[in-house]
Design brief:
By secondary structure, this protein is mainly α. The protein contains 10 helices and no strands. The longest helix is centred in the first third of the chain and has 28 residues, at 34-61. It is globular, with a radius of gyration of 17 Å. Pfam families: TENA_THI-4 (PF03070).
Length: 220
């Protein structure tokens, strides 16, 4: 069994909950309160800024040019490709990126990003890959599910670009490449290493759920 198949089995119950989370269900049918989406985008923009730094540490810690390139390309993917959709939506809400950067980090945003950054600084490229994988893979898992189940009802859905980004072929290729890369660097690891990486993967998956809760919660 591939290591990532094992990881998937371990987190499946949590990932299935993402698909029925009210934030995701309301994105799917287009009924999500726009204020909630705006708050999510602001926090997610801050999240992506910190997340990109985790890949930067990956470049520093990688031993080969091939591995360095892998992290380097993901920095570009995060800072340019993914944020482009955020910037477009935020512009519609009347916010420029510079203004978004001045917003306060929600406790969940700082906890999740601090967790990954601390792991990146103290760990090796395996720990960095495993801590960042639920983020890429689970968004593709959600995006593909939404496209498969709601793809033909998106014409007037305000969240269509978000769904199309994460369910797209390009993003699926990106996610699959990370899965493959993770299996490559985790070949022949010992049992205690497997357990350590599994725990990181589960924790990051739970942080993803916390992020959905944060995005949906009522605030005054
Ligand atoms: C909380 C949160 N988790 C995951 C993603 C998705 N994501 C973040 S970085 C990256 C890699 C390439 O852009 C991907 C897929 C998100 N946006 N926000």
């Amino acid at each position: 069994m591939k290591f990532t198949d094992y990881l998937f089995e371990e987190v499946k119950p949590v990932w299935e909950e993402y698909l029925i989370h009210p934030f995701i269900k309301e994105i799917a049918d287009g009924t999500l309160d726009k204020e909630k989406f705006k708050y999510y985008l602001i926090q997610d923009y801050l999240y992506l800024k910190e997340y990109a730094k985790v890949f930067c540490v990956g470049v520093v810690k990688a031993q080969t040019m091939k591995d360095m390139k892998f992290f380097y390309k993901s920095i570009k993917g995060t800072m340019e490709d993914e944020t482009a959709v955020h910037i477009k939506y935020l512009k519609d809400f009347g916010m420029e990126p510079e203004e978004v950067e001045k917003c306060e980090y929600d406790l969940t945003t700082s906890s999740y990003t601090s967790y990954m950054q601390a792991l990146a600084l103290t760990g090796d490229i395996r720990e960095i890959a495993i801590a960042t994988l639920p983020c890429t893979w689970s968004y593709n898992y959600i995006g593909k599910y939404l496209l498969e189940n709601h793809g033909n009802e998106l014409e007037n859905n305000f969240y269509r670009h978000w769904i199309e980004l994460y369910g797209s072929e390009g993003f699926t290729d990106f996610s699959d490449a990370w899965i493959e890369y993770t299996d490559r660097i985790c070949e022949n690891i010992c049992e205690s290493e497997r357990k350590k990486l599994r725990d990181i993967f589960i924790k990051a998956s739970i942080y993803e759920m916390e992020f959905w809760h944060m995005a949906y919660k009522e605030r005054t």
